[in-house]
Amino acid sequence: MSRKRQKNQMKFAFLVEDEGEARRATEGGVELLMAKCKTETSKQLPGKLMEEICERENLRRALKRVKKNKGSPGIDGMTAEELQGYLCKEWLAIREELMLGKYKVKPVKRVEIPKAGKGLRKLGIPCVLDRFVQQATLQVIQKYWDREFSGNSYGFRPSRSAHQAIEQAQKYIEQGNRFVVDIDLEKFFDKVNHDKLMGLLAQRIKDKRVLKLIREFLNAGVMENGLVKPSSEEGTPQGGPLSPLLSNIVLDVLDRELERRGHNFVRYADDCNIYVKSKRAGKRVMANLTKFIREKLKLKVNEEKSAVARPWKRKFLGFSFTNHMKPKRRIASQSIERFKTKVRAITKRTRAKSIEDVVEELSKYLNGWLGYYRFSQTQSVLQKMETWMRRRLRCYIWKSWKRGKTRFYDYAVHGIRGVMPGKK
């Protein structure tokens, strides 16, 4: 066989669907797929899960998602744009490793980013190939597992959002639950017990190759300052596509316990709020759940950040509520302060930037910020923030004019005479 022909075969190997059960089901039509789903128990995942992970269509979707998300390269330096070319050349060997359960995961690159409050959040950036494999695994496991999750869980799930979680919390308060048990899990992503997680996965996943692959991702190790450190027996590295699903699988145990006890609750990732009718009931719930989380989930509740209080004195996903009988959504004071801190940095008057560049930078930030916080129902707060922000921009322009003659001339150009900023 010529080298050119061999190269073409390897190039298109990634695009060829494998001869697995899922392909035979597809050839049988939609009816066969639906019939198969109905006969399978809701608790059990298919035995040949790895074949489904390596299917052509699933891989196409995973590749599209990784390229769309972009992200920084891992320790090998490969970018998301280079991934497709690499897969065209090496996919046969990678697929064989996955099928035999011999795929080796590279250590993740450790980076630190500032938290919304204080301190730093540690993220792990996997290599782009590992992100691709994680994404393909996520898509298959999630479609079976997601339908079993609680209806009160909103974080990192298809067709669910933070806004829906906030709206549900608002309904609970309107129904007369005027106290909230706000539970904060201490360093949740760093404290997830691997054995507990793998035990939960093994209850439904019988394909040992998939279990071994997930264990590989958990034990990949971390490269920090050029040195590879082995992973501990705890934690799911934040930054990989699979971590949010694994966290939901662990915390689904908490959701089921809350449902069994008949509580009104909303959970988004590791943020969990339970709504009760009295402070006494809230303290009882807090004590019982703290014990359950410590003993059953092997996690710890952060006592400093957790509390039983009125909903309008706490924040949830950046929002809070008014204390009316029909509460309204409002932006939490902490979120407003973070907004002002960011705007102050952008409009700092000593920056050597033109007003056009400042406005462009501010617009990019505002588009994302308003896209989330426009959900607020207290428009007067947004109007006050806009007034404050415009004053910051006027001060920036005033500072850039520098001399009195320039200021007088530019005021005249804009049709303003005898008026100074801050004076009537």
Summarize the structure in words.
With 424 residues, the protein is α+β, with helices and mostly antiparallel strands. It is globular and about 80 Å long. Strand 6 (264-268) and strand 7 (271-276) form a beta hairpin. The chain has a four-stranded mixed β-sheet with strand order 2-1-4-5, with no helix packed on it. Strands 6-7-3-8 form a four-stranded antiparallel β-sheet, sandwiched between helices. Strands 9-10 form a two-stranded antiparallel sheet. Helix 1 (3-13) packs across helix 6, helix 5 (56-69) packs across helix 7 (128-145) and helix 10 packs antiparallel against helix 11. It starts with a helix and ends in an 11-residue tail after the last helix. Helices cover 53% and strands 11% of the residues. The protein is built from 17 helices and ten strands. It has helices at 3-13, 21-27, 30-39, 49-53, 56-69, 80-100, 128-145, 162-174, 188-191, 194-202, 208-218, 243-260, 279-296, 333-346, 355-373, 379-401, 404-413, and strands spanning 108-114, 120-125, 179-184, 222-224, 227-229, 264-268, 271-276, 307-309, 319-321, 329-331.
Could you provide a short overview of the structure?
By secondary structure, this protein is an alpha+beta fold. The protein has helices spanning 3-13, 21-27, 30-39, 49-53, 56-69, 80-100, 128-145, 162-174, 188-191, 194-202, 208-218, 243-260, 279-296, 333-346, 355-373, 379-401, 404-413; strands at residues 108-114, 120-125, 179-184, 222-224, 227-229, 264-268, 271-276, 307-309, 319-321, 329-331.
